[in-house]
Amino acid sequence: MNWEKKVSDRYADSSRKQGWFSGLFSMIGMGVGCFAMTVSLSVMNGFESLVHDKLKGFEGDLRLTGTVNESDLDGIEGIESSMPFMERRGVLEEKDNQRVVTLKAIHVEKMASFYALPMKGNIPRIGQVAIGQDIAYRLGKDVGDEITVYSPIDQSFGFGLPPKKKMTISGIFSTRVLDYDDRFVFMSIQDGKKLFKRKSGLDGMDIRVSPEMDAATIKSKIAEKLDANMIVESWEDLNSALVDAMRMERLGTIVILSLIFLVAAFNLAAALALVSIQKMKEVGILKAMGASEDSIQIIMIRMGMRRAGKGAVVGFSFGLLIVLLQNWFGMIPIPSDIYFIDALPMVLSAKDLFIVIFISLLFILTASFMSGRKLAQTQIKEALQWAK
Amino acid sequence: MGEIILQAKSISKSYSNGRNQLSVLQNFSLDVREGEIITIMGQSGSGKSTALNILGTLDQPDAGSVFIGKHDISKMADEQLALIRNKHIGFVFQFHHLLPEFSAIENSLMPTWINGEEGHLARANDLFEKMGLTDRRDHLPSQLSGGERSRVAVVRALINHPAVLLADEPTGNLDEKNANKLIDLLDEINKDFHQAIVLTTHNPQVAAIGHRQFTLENGSLTEKV
Predict the structure, then answer these.
(1) Residues of chain A found within 8 Å of residue B95, distances taken between Cβ atoms
(2) How far is residue A47 from each of residues A118, A141, A256, A332, B209, measured CA to CA in Å?
(3) What is the rounded CA–CA span in Å between residue A367 and residue A267?
(4) Is B15 on the interface with A (CB under 8 A)?
(5) Closest Cα of chain B to A305: distance in Å?
(6) Would you tell me how many other CB atoms lie within 10 Å of the CB of residue B211?
(7) Chain B contact for A5, CB < 8 A?
(8) Which of A204, A363, B69, B86 could staple A261 via S-S, CB 3.0–4.6 A?
(9) What pLDDT, in 10s, does the model give residues B11-21?
(10) Is A248's Cβ below 8 Å from some Cβ in B?
(11) Does the predicted model carry a pTM greater than 0.80?
(12) Which residue of B has its CA nearest to A383?
């Protein structure tokens, strides 16, 4: 055991008896800060991963757009599956009621395995469509009802009326992500080819990357192979506004919760300043025996770590326990008709653990360092006279 | 006598109190040789402690220089001075200055811990036995008498085999019996370990143990012939 630890342990024990009140507050402060940040970040992560899963479930990991052929992805490793699609702005018509939507024509036989869509009814076959629940609600439609579908810009001969097709609603999906339930209509690619006369080729491909592969790496591989008229984007690129908003929200949460640490750090600094006054004489003695300023600094930092670090460890552990219990037992319920899950999602990543530990350590070390600096620089003679 | 181990050359030190300048040491010079006891006698406020603090690197002179061995300590950085204090100088203070949270034996071992050295327990036990403190080794300073505390402070000062032991009025806070006992012990240590000692006192009886005896008056040393 190094001597600084021995000294800081003894001083911490003796000062705990004298200045326990301020020490307790710095400990509680750090504990509350660590607990609040651990739980808040895990809840944010939980909801973010829920949104991410839904977005990825709807769009795949990557999207290739432009003049696309199904063979474009041949030879690229790490791609689990792909979904070629044609996409148009279209109209759903029911008597006098019309809704402007995005028509997405896909290989419907792969739809269930490729897209993760909570669906009432069935996957559409030829002559059928799957619509979002908000569209269904606005048009007053349900599974099995018929509806007229057309793409206004796709006239048969470049003029006249576009082809209209009466199709049966095979299923109604509900993603609850952005405006997808109010915007998208899925149909077979065969129906798409009949409706989209202006351009018969594919508009893009949704790509699902193998779970063990990194989507960014695959994106780079695809980008290297692409023609200039093709673009590959990740789901984050496609929803950059949402991703940025979530990132800002996370940053704001971290900054605001750091204020708890700041207050705790002030408490700690005050407690250690008290210790500095109490231990002035001892520091003079230690320096007279050859202790360096760095060693005195280390003693104070160790004391700070011992006081506030304990609180941080307890708060952090308690936060982790809450996250684990929530994941195991779902103790905190949320309405499943709104969120599709019945318990508050909590996910804690290694990065978040690092953030919490780093911020708490930063504040503890800074407060301890600032308090210890002056004590370490005290002149030996003054410190010994202080004792007299 | 042996070679010079501590040397002060033309030391001056003064303190300022606003407009007034109080000169404490003027042209203070002293050579300390291996194995000798030097006593510096003077009235309270004569500058004995200031002189000892400067010799022990606890304070800096305004002018002049201090050599430990051949090293001029006035040119050393704080870290180097800390090392010099730890390895070459032992201090015994009037108020013993033991660390209240540590037992007597831990207090005496503290300089070796600071030095990062283990294995001095046997030496500490020997010194405790010599000082008659064997049964008090695990007591806290608050559980020791004034005389015992002073003797623990002497053990602590000797534990690292210092070149010189600086004792600032070590008997100033003791009754006559304990003061005599401590002086006898310092004399014995000097003889047994060939330990150089610089001791300040205002007591002529204590000063009498010095091989060379000085009086500090008006900031300058005068050797008693």
Answers:
(1) 387-388
(2) 18, 31, 19, 14, 83
(3) 9
(4) no
(5) 20
(6) 14
(7) no
(8) A363
(9) 999 888 777 88
(10) no
(11) no
(12) B58
Q: Which residues of A177-197 are buried (b: 16+ CB within 10 A; e: fewer)?
A: beebbbbbbbbbbebbebbbb
Collect all residues of chain B within an 8 Å Cβ-Cβ radius of residue A289.
85-86, 91, 110-111, 114, 156
- Which alpha helices (DSSP H) does chain A contain, by range? 3-18, 20-59, 111-114, 133-139, 189-195, 215-225, 235-238, 240-278, 280-288, 293-329, 336-339, 350-376, 380-387
Q: A13: which chain B residues are within 8 Å (Cβ-Cβ)?
A: 101
- If contacts are CB pairs under 8 Å, which of residues 11-70 in chain A contact chain B? 11, 13-14
Flag if A381 and B115 touch (Cβ within 8 Å). no
* B28 close contact with A: CB closer than 8 A: no
H/E segment holding residue A137: helix A133-139
User: Tens digits of per-residue pLDDT, B43-90?
Assistant: 888 888 899 999 998 888 999 999 988 888 888 888 899 998 998 999
Distance from C-alpha of A132 to C-alpha of A127, rounded to nearest angstrom: 17
CA A45 – CA A42 distance, rounded (Å):
5
Query: Which tokens go with A45?
Result: 């992560």
Task: Determine, for residues A13 and B53 on separate chains, whether the beta-carbon distance falls below 8 Å.
Answer: no
So what's the pLDDT on residue A11? Answer: 83
Q: Could you identify the residue written with the tokens 């006098």? A: A96
Q: How many cross-chain Cβ pairs, A to B, lie less than 8 Å apart?
A: 70
**Torsion, Cα of B144, B147, B152, B157 (10° steps):** 150
Contact A11 B101 (CB under 8 A): yes
Residue type, A257: L
Report the residue of chain B nearest A8, measured CA to CA.
B101
**Cα–Cα nearest to A46, from A264, A318, A340:** A340
Q: What is the CA radius of gyration of chain B?
A: 17
- In our burial notation (b when 16+ CB lie closer than 10 A, e otherwise), range A158-171 reads eeeebeebebebbb
Chain B CB contacts of A14 under 8 Å are 100-101
Task: Average the pLDDT over A212-234 and give the result.
Answer: 84
**Length of chain A, in residues:** 388
Are the beta carbons of A186 and A121 closer than 8 angstroms? no
The pair of three-digit structure tokens given for residue A164, joined into one six-digit string = 């209209």
Phi–psi pair at A90, nearest 5 degrees: -140, 180
User: Tokens 């300058």 map to which residue?
Assistant: B220
- Tell me the sheet residues that pair with A99: A92
Pair of tokens at residue A318: 């308690």
A276/A295 Cα distance (integer angstroms) = 14
pLDDT beyond 90 at A169: yes
A86 CB-contact burial (10 Å; exposed 0-12 / middle 13-18 / buried 19+): buried
Which of A63, A377, A8 lies closest to A223, judged by CA?
A63
**Any A CB within 8 A of B77 CB:** no
A285 and B CB contact within 8 Å: yes
Cα separation of A58 and A179, whole Å? 12
Complex prediction ipTM = 0.90
